[in-house]
Design goal:
Number of helices: 30
Distance between the termini: 52 Å
Largest sheet: 8 strands, mixed
Structural class: alpha/beta
Shape: globular
Helix content: 40-55%
Radius of gyration: 28 Å
Bound molecules: (S)-3-Hydroxyhexanoyl-CoA
């Protein structure tokens, strides 16, 4: 056996096979060094007379997770597309595909994006039972750029390829085999040997060699293809707003079907380069790293060896939130005791949790067997004693300071001294509960968003006295639930509710100035929010919103604005979806505009002192509301509520549905420019004589120094 090293890539030659192994932790991304190493190892294998075929593989963790995203981010921000001396991935794929000696990819772990594209260019693919393959480029605002749009459809058929690319999802081994992405499956232990056998069979003609790009055996008929494309285009037009990369992906696929794979590769390249230079790609690449940074612990907190894996967790209160939290914990294999005040309520909570699991089974996301196992780890009981052996207690009782304070005092006496006590409050000052417990170092906030088993964001709230280990262990727990933790300081509204406070206040501000609430909603949906502010208020419940708004107004009185509208609606019993009437009329899951709302709006305007009506464009509506969010986010940054500005963007996209293709409030504001945002706020501050528009110091500093907010 001979071995040569090419940076992070090695070439081992044994029994006629050249095994090229990529080892670039953590995820084997295709960095410049890997690309150079691959080119050099591949050329050497092709040139070596003793090599008959090549096996391309990764390390024990992963095959290749794709192009180096940090490099893509630099290009998106203006760096040159190519680096002298570094091979381009599409060209590397082309030479693998057309080389005289066949190549087989041995895929263990992830083959994503450019990683899968490398494998698709090989003449065969063997996956391990733990392989996961996918083309997630669309989730980064891109399209596959190294042949994915051409080669994948030729292996799986157009329909399956489109579904995989548009969803950005990963397929596991059995599905990859069924779809034709891999030709065979082996265990991780035997993977390389199996791939070598496969490669030998190709080399000596026992297996027919076929280039992916030349294949058409899996492609649907021309008529079926045009039907599939038309359906996909209609779906894309319906689902995506303000972005063009999903339809660019379809363009590349269609071009290749019409003009052949080689022409398709060229078209793909042009569209990939255009997507990479676009604002959505810059925004989504920013979020990719922001999300991975958000759970990083602040200086002074050791994440290391002492962090326990929290296994036994008690949830106090089995309402919608408590049940959702319990379901998320059970789903990640934790043991949960759910504590209620009465047997009937405990049974209600169990039924809610069972329903969540049943729906996963019905949708095919979980086997009935595993759902049964997960539910077997749930105990529902009456009385706080049920929390006595927990390592973490998450309190999700009703939003009452008295009730929660009493619970924290009792829990602190009951549970072992190293049990953390977390509250899921969204409005109560965590230090009050910390003081009530008598052991403030054990107390933190874990603010899940509703529905808790679905929403990805959890705000981990630390008070000045929370033990760093509590934060470290809670963050590790949240990550294990496949959720994203953002560590925030304790303040009214924490992060998301606080920065979106002006969003709802300024909606009222515009309504009081004669702007139609439905028009405001449409403008914000046009911007990319999942729903407008009035529709959202109906969903959350107007009574809940008025109560929470009251707390925030009291906490930040110097810059608060409240229209009387929501209070009037609550007084009339119009509480939103739950009563069938709010800003909208709700029936059968649909929300319809209600002509009767005009009367309430009229009264609200009178109560607000009948301010003059405002002429305002759709873009100004969006900016007025969302610059308010940016401004409050700047305050959160300057007060140290977040550890880093990019945490704001992560929280706003995951917690409020701020469109990812705009990168979050601060990235979006940076696209516009801090100075322009500040100038608009100052102008409104003066024109309306309204303190709610007063620019934050951080915004002013960045604007003056011509510095980005991020
Ligand atoms: C592409 O391929 C374009 C081509 O079509 C065309 C090219 C011409 N690059 O997520 P984790 C880092 S587009 C650089 O926490 P996990 C990540 O930042 C690409 N770095 O791990 C983190 O660093 P740190 C298409 C990357 O186990 C560390 O690795 N591919 C990359 O939860 C661990 O990451 C994708 O979109 C990368 N490609 O999940 C796949 N990937 O420790 C992107 C990760 O310093 N990656 N890092 O914070 C993933 O989806 C997940 O990382 C993966 C592992 C599922 C692989």
């Amino acid at each position: 056996m001979s071995e040569t090293r090419h940076g992070t890539v090695t070439l081992e030659i044994e029994d006629g096979i050249g095994v090229i192994r990529i080892d670039n932790p953590p995820v084997n991304a295709l960095s410049a060094e890997v690309l150079i190493g691959l080119r050099s190892a591949f050329d050497r294998a092709q040139a070596a007379p003793e090599v008959n075929a090549v096996v391309l593989t990764g390390n024990s963790q992963t095959f290749v997770a794709g192009a180096d995203v940090s490099r893509l981010q630099k290009i998106a921000d203006g760096a040159p597309l190519d680096t002298p001396g570094v091979p381009r991935l599409p060209e590397l794929c082309a030479s693998i595909e057309s080389s005289a000696k066949p190549s087989v990819a041995a895929i263990d772990g992830f083959a994503l994006g450019g990683g899968l594209e490398l494998a698709l260019a090989c003449q065969g693919r063997v996956g391990s039972t733990r392989c996961r393959v996918g083309l997630p480029e669309l989730a980064l605002g891109l399209i596959p750029g190294a042949g994915g749009t051409q080669r994948l459809p030729r292996l799986t058929g157009v329909e399956a390829a489109i579904e995989l690319m548009l969803s950005s999802r990963q397929a596991q081994a059995d599905e990859a085999l069924r779809l034709g992405i891999v030709d065979a499956i082996a265990s991780s232990d035997t993977l390389t040997a199996e791939a070598c056998r496969f490669a030998r069979e190709l080399a000596d003609g026992r297996r027919v060699r076929s280039e992916t790009l030349a294949r058409d055996d899996r492609l649907e008929s021309a008529a079926a293809q045009s039907e599939i494309m038309a359906r996909a285009r209609a779906g894309v037009a319906k689902k995506y707003r303000n972005v063009t990369h999903p339809s660019a992906c379809l363009d590349a696929i269609e071009y290749g079907l019409e003009h052949g794979g080689l022409a398709g590769l060229e078209r793909e390249r042009e569209l990939f380069v255009a997507a990479l230079a676009s604002e959505p790609a810059r925004a989504m690449l920013h979020l990719f790293f922001a999300e991975r940074t958000s759970g990083k612990l602040p200086d002074g907190i050791e994440a290391g060896a002492r962090a326990r894996k929290l296994e036994r967790i008690a949830v106090i209160g089995g309402g919608t939130m408590g049940s959702g939290i319990a379901a998320a914990l059970l789903d990640a294999g934790r043991t949960v005791s759910l504590v209620e005040t009465e047997t009937e309520r405990a049974e209600g909570a169990r039924a809610r949790i069972e329903k969540i699991f049943q729906s996963k089974v019905d949708k095919g996301r979980l086997s009935a067997e595993l759902a049964g196992e997960r539910l077997a780890a749930l105990t529902t009981l009456v009385g706080l004693e049920g929390a006595a052996t927990a390592e973490l207690v998450i309190e999700a009782a009703s939003e009452s300071v008295e009730l929660k304070s009493r619970l924290f005092a009792e829990l602190a006496r009951l549970v072992p001294s190293d049990t953390w006590l977390a509250t899921n409050t969204s409005t109560i000052d965590v230090t009050i509960l910390a003081d009530a417990s008598g052991t403030p170092e054990r107390v933190l906030g874990l603010h899940f968003f509703s529905p808790a088993h679905v929403m990805k964001l959890v705000e981990v709230v630390r008070t000045p006295r929370t033990d760093g280990r509590a934060i470290a262990e809670a963050v590790a727990l949240i990550r294990s639930l496949k959720k994203t933790a953002v560590i925030v300081g304790n303040c009214p509204g924490f992060l998301v509710n606080r920065i979106f406070m002006p969003y709802s206040q300024l909606t009222g501000f515009l309504i009081d100035r004669g702007v139609d609430p439905y028009r405001i909603d449409r403008a914000l949906v046009g911007f990319g929010m999942p729903m407008g502010p009035s529709r959202m208020s109906d969903l959350a419940g107007l009574d809940v919103g008025v109560a929470a708004g009251g707390i925030l107004d009291a906490a930040y009185p110097e810059r608060s604005y409240r229209s009387p509208l929501r209070r009037l609606l609550v007084e009339a019993g119009r509480l939103g979806e739950k009563t069938g009437l709010g800003h909208y009329r709700h029936a059968g899951g649909r929300a319809e505009e209600d002509p009767d709302l005009a009367e309430f709006v009229q009264r609200a305007r009178e109560l607000a002192g009948s301010p003059p009506a405002l002429e305002i464009s759709e873009q100004e509506i969006q900016r007025l509301l969302l610059f308010g969010v940016v401004n409050e986010a700047c305050r959160a940054v300057e007060e140290g509520i977040v550890l880093r500005p990019s945490d704001v963007d992560v929280a706003a996209t995951l917690g409020m549905g701020f469109p990812a293709y705009r990168g979050g409030p601060l990235r979006w504001a940076d696209f516009i420019g801090a100075a322009a945002v500040r100038a608009a706020l100052s102008e409104w501050r003066e024109r309306f004589d309204a303190p709610i528009f007063e620019p934050a110091a951080y915004l002013t500093d960045c604007a003056r120094a011509q510095r980005p907010l991020l």
